[in-house]
Amino acid sequence: MAELVVVADEHAAGALVADAIVSLIRRKPDAVLGLATGSTPLATYRALATRIGDDAIDVRGVRGFALDEYVGLPAGHPESYRAVITREVVEPLGLTPELVRVPNGDPVTVEHAGADYEAAITAAGGVDLQILGIGRTGHIGFNEPGSSLASLTRVKTLTAPTRADNARFFESPEDVPMHCITQGIGTILRARHLVLLAFGEAKAQAIAAAVEGPVTASQPGSAVQLHPHTTVIVDEAAASKLENLAYYRHAWDNKPAWQGI
Ligand code: PGA
To answer: pLDDT below 50 — which residues of the chain?
Structure first.
């Protein structure tokens, strides 16, 4: 079973995840982080930046792989995930830019960009800790419902709800690209530790399906049930549709102190 932790808010989640990442980097200074975009992980990145500064953690060797990228945005577009990862992660954390990869969404080369990205992750020795958000549709990365549970990095077509959700970042809804390149569910499952974050009522259904529903490509988040080390961190609102919530709280309250997340 995935470990499920209910926290007060995204800042409390950020503190927990920052702890886990700092101890990973102390053990492995060239740790490989899997980086999500969207609003969900922002508080975690801020908490991590603060911890890195306060504890003077040397992160120059830390490597990173983003989950996904839009296809076809002009280079340097402020909402490209390359730009978002630079702005929200690489710069505030002080990572080495050359060590942080984002899938290449240039339509000219996108045909082999998935295979290139898989090769780069493999060459890095795999992802140590993968941060995940979840969409209303249940997507992780941009793996929309129906994505193969064994899929690797490739081009996908975004659903209408996902394009509508992401329209807030663009001038008009039509500006949201139709296609993306995303790590597959199979790629995500190869990471050594998955940390899935969700906050707010709008995510409650997707979280219940991911944690307690059947494992099905129709709910890509449910793939986390196949992983031996998944930590799901949610606030009360996102936890509100879970049937076994009392047990998750009981397990967390009685967790051995040495375990960490
Ligand atoms: P959000 O997106 O963090 O902006 O809610 C999550 C996702 O779509 O994976």
So the answer is: none
